């Protein structure tokens, strides 16, 4: 039996419950194949722009306190999902989370290496609607610069990488089983950009949520088995060497009828204050 379909506040509580309960989670095995679902291990060197968001105070010391993913979009800016910074996830206003950190350059969260960088400030688009979870994007300004070599370029509107059928890769330390089996080592899974219709059909509104193509991007594996899952939220979806999406939500993990919903980052960029590299070109 799978975890019930989740979205919005319900999905957030499922995330929180899953994260908080992760060492103790007892759930029936899911049919999922395994990432990130259906994934493979990757190194920090091959994907230097992936970061983990961490708060040990909130989520415990295991796995360096990881609770979401993120992506380096300038040496001092990490992009993540807005819902990762919500009080529902963090237990309080993000500004009060004193030990919120970005872990960079470390694929194995149980190992040393890389950097843990404090977050100086965060920004969520003023139009973010938590109910609709749209647009599910936030920026974190770091207290120290990361090497420029870790920056991933962000796709612009009209980028051909958004064309359905494009092969993309999603990265994260999230659930690899659909049953609360969180990864210590960074994983990636290959998915395809899917037509908006696939997600519009799967998520017409109601219990499974509503897909809004203006701010969301549909991707997955129509056969099932390759997908993001709980704990991957905020992490990057990459195609053609560019950031096209952020893990946002979906119904279950790795289901043929529950494609992954990602933040369409190109659509959100116009509302971002001029902090992104190459912005406005
Ligand atoms: C989550 O709750 C979540 N299968 C992220 C991605 C997906 C489902 C749930 C997509 O963080």
From TrEMBL:
Peptidase S1 domain residues are 36-277
Superkingdom per UniProt: Bacteria
The entry's keywords: Disulfide bond, Hydrolase, Protease, Secreted, Serine protease, Signal
For this protein, the record's InterPro entries field holds:
Peptidase_S1_PA, Peptidase_S1_PA_chymotrypsin, Peptidase_S1A, Serine_Proteases_S1, Trypsin_dom, TRYPSIN_HIS, TRYPSIN_SER
Where would you find this protein in the cell?
Secreted
Give the signal peptide as a residue range, or say none if absent: 1-27
Q: What is its main location?
A: secreted
Q: Which Pfam families match?
A: Trypsin (PF00089)
GO biological process terms, alphabetically, are: proteolysis
Q: Does the keyword Nucleus apply?
A: no
Q: Name one GO molecular function term.
A: peptidase activity
This protein is called Serine protease
């Amino acid at each position: 039996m799978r975890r019930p379909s989740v979205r919005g506040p319900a999905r957030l509580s499922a995330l929180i419950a899953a994260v908080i309960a992760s060492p103790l989670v007892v759930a029936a095995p899911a049919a999922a194949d395994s990432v990130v679902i259906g994934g493979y291990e990757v190194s920090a060197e091959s994907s230097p722009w992936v970061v983990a968001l961490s708060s040990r105070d909130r989520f415990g010391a295991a796995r360096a306190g990881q609770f979401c993913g993120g992506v380096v979009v300038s040496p001092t800016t990490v992009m993540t999902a807005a819902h990762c910074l919500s009080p529902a996830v963090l237990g309080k206003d993000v500004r009060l989370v004193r030990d919120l950190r970005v872990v960079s350059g470390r694929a194995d969260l149980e190992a040393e290496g890389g950097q843990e960088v404090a977050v100086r400030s965060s920004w969520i688009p003023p139009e973010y609607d938590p109910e609709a979870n749209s647009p599910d994007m936030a920026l974190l300004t770091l207290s120290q610069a990361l090497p420029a070599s870790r920056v991933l370029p962000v796709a612009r509107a009209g980028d051909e990488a958004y064309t359905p059928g494009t092969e993309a890769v999603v990265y994260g330390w999230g659930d690899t089983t659909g049953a609360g089996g969180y990864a210590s080592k960074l994983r990636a899974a290959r998915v395809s950009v899917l037509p908006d219709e696939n997600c519009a059909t799967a998520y017409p509104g109601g219990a499974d949520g509503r897909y809004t193509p203006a701010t969301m991007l549909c991707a997955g594996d129509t056969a099932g088995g390759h997908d993001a899952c709980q704990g991957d939220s905020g992490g990057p979806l990459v195609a053609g060497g560019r950031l096209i999406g952020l893990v946002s939500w979906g119904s279950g993990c790795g289901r043929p009828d529950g494609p992954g919903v990602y933040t369409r980052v190109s659509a959100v960029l116009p509302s971002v204050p001029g902090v992104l590299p190459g912005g406005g070109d």
